[in-house]
Amino acid sequence: MIKVSSDKKWQGALYSLVLVIVIWQALSWLLKLPIIPSPFAVLINIIQIFAAKMEIHLLYSLGRIMGGIALSILLGVPLGFLMGYFNRVDKVLSPLVYFTYPVPKIALLPIIMLLFGLGEASKLIMIVLIIIFQIIITSRDAVKGIPQEIFRSLQSLGASRLQVFKEVIIPASLADVLTATRLALGTAVSILFFTETFGTQYGMGYFIMDAWMRVNYLDMYAGIVILSLMGFCLFTVIDITERHISSWR
Amino acid sequence: MIEIKDLVVKYRRKNEETPVLDNININIGTGDIYTFIGPSGCGKSTLLHVLSGILKDYTGSVRIDGHAIDPKTQRIGLILQNYGLLPWKNVYHNTMLGVKIKNDQQVLDEYGRYILQQLGIDSLLDRFPKELSGGQQQRVAIARAFILKPDLLLMDEPFSALDAISREELQDLFLKIWKENNVTTAFVTHSVDEALYLGSKIVVFSSAPGRILEVVDNSCFQLDNLRFRDEYYDMCMNLRKILDKG
Fold first, then answer.
1. Which of A89, B191, B195, B216 has its CA 20 to 30 A from that of A103?
2. ipTM score above 0.85
């Protein structure tokens, strides 16, 4: 079952890739503008410059985004679990979460930069600020959605709180948390790009903007393609993990 | 021995108190199996929640072998109508849950394997609950409870979600394993037939708030071919009369 659907997914991904390249190539032929180079020229450029010029930027971006996601999960999941499990914690924190969730966090960038400087800390904080809310809310709702009977079974066995967390809460909500992370990833990549255009000389965001300033469109496109590819790879990794651990569904 | 004395349970909702169980007094001897029958909403399940340590807000005294209820020290097997299995654990890990929590036991022992065999689920160990039929899921729940070697077995309408054929099959199977282990059992049901088939004594509850109308000695208990005997029909009539009065 799972194998068939994953084959289909790969077919879909391949089909989309071909479609994007065809449209891109068509546009480049039709418009004949330097701002839209042919996808094949970009591909050749990537092969030529990747190891020498792009690799370090990719590693920086990858480090920032994985750090941001890891930190959001490490902080957000336990918080969400506590809110889901203890009604009192939920009553105190939920209004706060709901109130701050719709605030456009990107607008806070100047404040974060003033407080935490132009370095890595403010970049990480921006990513965490934006994806942590989805993770908190999802983990809380996942815990709240666990049927009472399951808790009762464990209670009658005299399970400790730690055992309840280990045997019920974590396995029951892990898949949901990964789904939330996967969905937050798209936003996280945009934020990453944005934060990397300030106060750094490394990262795909810097690379793309720098190429643009130098009017090197081939490099700029190479950067966009690699950044998208990075997002796609992360997305796929989370997707596969998610399917693996939620095989019981 | 389970001793229930002057047990009163009230549900509190805002400023209102609704009595659910009213002045319950009963003793269940060690190794006995009591069935509890009564109209829905009469508090039968609430009684099981008290006995399993889930519900702590009650007055009166409930003691198991002279000790207050504490699921941490006592071994209580609970079997619920909707099985209470963990959907993310396969059959093997679901049946292991009780002994894992109680004894930190990681591998199924010989007795466990025997129980799984008796229940006919030893070939399904890798399956997840969603891949099982209702009857199979309930077998897993029964296995989990027996593997725990409980001091007290509590069953809350465990067979009522099953079709008639699997229900009778599972009743027989349960009775067979129960005879081998002789666990003190409180069995809640809404079926007169089931109460007669499985209970050495039958406790009849009134409608809400639940009171004990009568504790009936079941002369039919463990008779062969019970459902084809006249005694069975006499007892059925008798029980229905008591229920009607309540």
1. A89
2. no
| CATH architecture type of domain A39-245 | Orthogonal Bundle (1.10)
Closest Cα to residue B187, out of B163, B166, B218?
Answer: B218
Contact A157 B102 (CB under 8 A): yes
Domain boundaries, chain A: 1-36, 39-245
Q: Which residues of A touch B (CB under 8 A)?
A: 147, 149-150, 152-160, 163, 167-168, 171-172, 247-249
Domain boundaries, chain B: 1-69+152-246, 75-150
Domain B1-69+152-246 has CATH 3.40.630.90: no
Q: What is the pLDDT along chain B (246 residues), one digit of tens a residue?
A: 888 988 888 888 778 888 888 888 999 989 899 999 988 878 888 899 999 988 888 899 999 988 888 888 889 999 988 888 999 999 999 999 999 998 888 888 899 999 899 888 999 999 999 999 988 999 999 999 999 989 899 999 888 888 888 888 888 888 888 888 889 999 999 888 888 888 899 999 888 788 888 888 888 787 777 778 788 888 888 888 888 876
Instruction: Judge whether A159 and A169 are in contact, CB under 8 Å.
Output: no
Query: Closest chain B residue to A246 measured between Cα atoms?
Result: B88
